[in-house]
Design brief:
The chain is of the alpha+beta class. The protein has helices at about 100-105, 110-120, 135-140, 145-160, 185-195, 205-210, 215-225, 230-250, 255-260, 265-275, 280-290, and strands at about 5, 15-25, 30-35, 35-45, 45-50, 55-60, 60-65, 70-75, 90-95, 125, 170. Pfam families: AraC_binding, HTH_18.
Length: about 290
């Protein structure tokens, strides 16, 4: 199993943002993480991207937004090693994790950006090919600016991204290193309970009773507060935990299925393939070979 590199970037409080154009034969940087957030704009290129416990294909006119300390890795398709004319290019922007943190977390004008950065802790992929906000043009202006002008352009980029729906949230909910901030003590209480017991058999009626609600009202309440059904959330958490165990390499598939709370190996395989697009065995081989 490969090691994860802790990259140290030359970003400080005095210079919290770094932006540059890139033009590579292919992506070569290994599986790594850093405390800074990162924007990777793919103007031209295609391949596979990994972040946390998830993976996704990428292609022209797409953008990754990656959170602080989120392990990630990009690789181009195999034909990049065979065809000399293939290259990958675009813009990379890295910024300090506490960049404008007080303003983002306290001022209502920045609520959308603050929520965007929270969601980036799981890794986001955006498609820019059909967007109407001239986001590619904004991105390409940022490396050419300095000082306040660069900061203004960067804030315009973040604001524009708040109006786009990500094509994919790359990592599973269970991988999220920063728990989502829920409004209301009741949903926080429920989520704390689920975080502790999601690998165990969980009965809807018991959780609804824990929240002092009937099952029908609880299901509606849970969907309104999380955007997911109760069962979907439990399955997502179990799949996320399974991905971590598959990365570890010490457990076999049957042991992982049991540890994560699935009814059987067959049920685990079905859920995992539906969630990730591949079987647990294929996922382990793919993530372990990079």
């Amino acid at each position: 199993m490969r090691k994860i590199l802790n990259e140290q970037l030359d970003i400080t409080d005095a210079h919290p943002l770094k932006a540059r154009f890139y033009d590579y034969k292919n992506f070569t940087y290994p599986w790594h993480f850093h405390s800074e957030f990162e924007v990777i704009y793919i103007e031209k290129g295609y391949g596979l991207g990994m972040a946390g416990d998830g993976m996704t294909d990428f292609s022209d006119q797409q953008l990754f937004l990656l959170g602080s300390n989120l392990p990630h890795y990009l690789e181009n398709a195999p034909e990049y090693d065979l065809k000399e004319e293939l290259r990958v290019n675009g813009v990379i922007i890295q910024f300090e994790k506490d960049f404008m943190q007080y303003a983002f977390s306290h001022y209502s004008q920045f609520q959308g950006i603050n929520r965007l950065l929270e969601e980036a802790q799981r890794g986001l992929l955006f498609s820019l090919s059909n967007c109407t906000d001239n986001i590619p043009q904004i991105i390409k202006r940022i490396p050419q600016k300095e000082g306040v002008g660069q900061i203004v352009e960067f804030l315009q980029l973040l604001d524009a991204l708040t109006h786009l729906t990500p094509q994919k949230v790359i990592s599973s909910p269970a991988y999220d290193p920063v728990p989502a901030r829920f409004n209301g003590r009741k949903i926080e209480k429920v989520m704390a309970f689920l975080n502790k017991h999601y690998t165990q058999p969980i009965c809807l009626e018991d959780v609804a009773s824990y929240a002092a609600m009937n099952p029908t009202a609880f299901c509606r309440f849970f969907k309104e507060n999380t955007g997911k059904t109760f069962r979907q959330h439990i399955t997502d958490m179990r799949i996320g935990y399974a991905c971590k165990l598959l990365l570890n390499g010490k457990w076999n598939i049957s042991e992982i299925s049991l540890e994560c709370g699935f009814e059987s190996v067959a049920h685990f395989n079905r859920c995992f393939k539906k969630h990730t697009g591949m079987t647990p065995t294929s996922y382990r081989k793919k993530i372990g070979s990079t």
